[in-house]
Specification:
The chain is of the alpha+beta class and about 160 residues long. Helices cover about 15% and strands about 35% of the residues.
Amino acid sequence: MEETVVKAIQDEYPDDFAWCYGCGRLNEAGHHFRTGWYGEQTLSIYSPDPEHLALPGFVYGGLVASFIDCHGTGSASLFLHRKNGHEPGDGAEPPRFVTASLNVNFLKPTPHGVPLKAVGTVQEIHPKKFNVVTEVFANEVLCARGEVVAVVMPSTFLKNE
C-alpha cells in the first residue's frame, strides 16, 4: 500500500505564506512538499522530477536538503497546531515557521525514480522553538537524516501595507 498525505498543513497556510519554493502550494515552479500526520510522527512523500539529478540514477543532495527543511518547518507547524487544539482541515489558521538551523547527513546515495518518504519526530524545546529530526527513505532504505530547528515566524516577515 502506498502512503499518502491526505491533510497537509501546507494546504492550510494563508495565501501570503504559501509561496515557498519547497512547500508553497501557490508557487507554480516549486516542489509542493506536503506534510501530514503519521501516527505521532509526521510524513511527506515526494517523487523527484527528471531534472533533480546529481548524476544519472541519483537525486541531487540539495533537493534532499530542501525536502528535510520544508518537512521540518511543516512538522513544527503541525505539532504546535495540534498543541493549540487544532488539526489540518478544521478551519483554524496554523502557525507558520521558519528555519533557524538545518543540518543534513547523507547516509547513502538517494536513488532517483522512486518516491522519497520523510518521517519526522518533533521535540519542543521552547514555546516558539522546535527541533525536528527527519529521516528520508527511498525504497525503505534510510538515505539521509536531518535536523531542523524551526521557530515561529517573526512578525517582521509580515507584509508592510
